[in-house]
Design brief:
Layout: H1 11-19, H2 44-51, H3 55-64, E1 76-77, E2 84-95, H4 111-117, E3 123-128, H5 140-148, E4 153-156, E5 159-160, H6 163-169, E6 173-175, E7 177-178, E8 187-192, E9 196-198, E10 201-203, E11 208-212, E12 215-219, H7 224-248, H8 260-270
Parallel strand pairs: 2-3, 3-4, 4-6, 5-7
Antiparallel strand pairs: 1-6, 2-8, 2-11, 9-10, 11-12
């Protein structure tokens, strides 16, 4: 099967194309248990805004909203200095078992290749490897196609191999480890674009996946706009606190973690009321 190359087309169009070119009984390429109201995909402009917000600030903003754990444990940058923000395309691996072979599609209908074809410049491929790091989820050959499609990034709680080549490909890669070992004897790619876990975090297709030198954070699609607003405010307050500490030469504990002193300072400096 030859899958059309639509790397530059919108995610919904790529999904529609694949729905009509693969066996619909094999993959969950549309979430089957969608409990969220229909909402538009996160825009490329919003992704650019997210890319400029440090992951630690996004974590804090989600904490303010009492959101569960959103930091992907173990996902470290393959090389420092790269920022990443994209809409999640998800891929789930399962443990290998001999009887699985009869049901596993071959060639370019295998799940990892289907997932890759859903990716473009605004997408990040997020791979649930169950935290297994001894074997790899892929290397230079498979992920050469990600480079061709100019993807936003690759994230896994497992390992990748051929790390030298992957660095040369240029797109951000975040993994728990690197390894020399291939993966088929241990686990197989199985399901595309359903809700998965990655590093202990729930990831749903279309969520925002943001990465920098400190790791990877998942921002639920439904919360993106409010999280950005809270994050920008917290960055503003933190800069005020640092400036005030420079003036007073006092312990950070006077203003941090944020407390009544912090918000009195905020109101004085900005003329705005503290957030509710």
């Amino acid at each position: 099967m030859q899958v059309p190359d639509h790397a530059s087309s919108p995610p919904a169009e790529r999904l529609h194309t694949l729905q009509h070119t693969i066996n619909p009984n094999i993959y969950c390429i549309n979430p089957r248990r969608n409990t969220l109201p229909e909402m538009p995909p996160i825009s490329d402009q919003t992704l650019e805004v997210l890319k400029e917000i440090p992951t630690q600030t996004l974590i804090d903003a989600l904490w303010v909203k009492n959101w569960p754990q959103s930091y992907i444990e173990g996902a470290r940058p393959l090389q420092l200095g790269q920022k990443m923000a994209g809409r999640a395309v998800t891929l789930r691996f399962v443990p290998h078992r001999p009887d699985l072979a009869a049901d596993k599609p071959k060639g370019d209908q295998s799940a990892e290749y289907v997932a890759i074809e859903l990716c473009g410049p605004g997408e990040v491929l997020v791979v649930d490897a169950m935290g297994w790091t001894y074997s790899s989820i892929g290397g230079d050959i498979k992920f050469f196609r990600l480079m061709q499609r100019d993807v936003g990034g690759l994230v896994t709680d497992g390992s990748v191999r051929d790390s030298v080549a992957l660095k040369e490909y240029g797109f951000p890669v975040f993994s728990a480890s690197t390894t020399a070992k291939q993966g088929p004897a241990e686990f197989w790619p199985w399901q595309v674009n359903d809700a998965i876990q990655c590093g202990g975090v729930l990831v749903r297709p279309g969520d925002a996946v943001v990465g920098d030198d400190d790791g990877v954070v998942v921002v639920p699609r439904s919360e993106v706009d409010e999280v950005i607003q809270i994050a920008h405010q917290r960055e503003e307050v933190e800069e005020m606190v640092k400036a005030q500490l420079e003036v007073e030469k006092c312990s950070p504990g006077k203003y941090y973690p944020f407390n009544n002193n912090t918000w009195e300072l905020y109101e004085k400096k900005t003329g705005r009321k503290r957030p509710g």
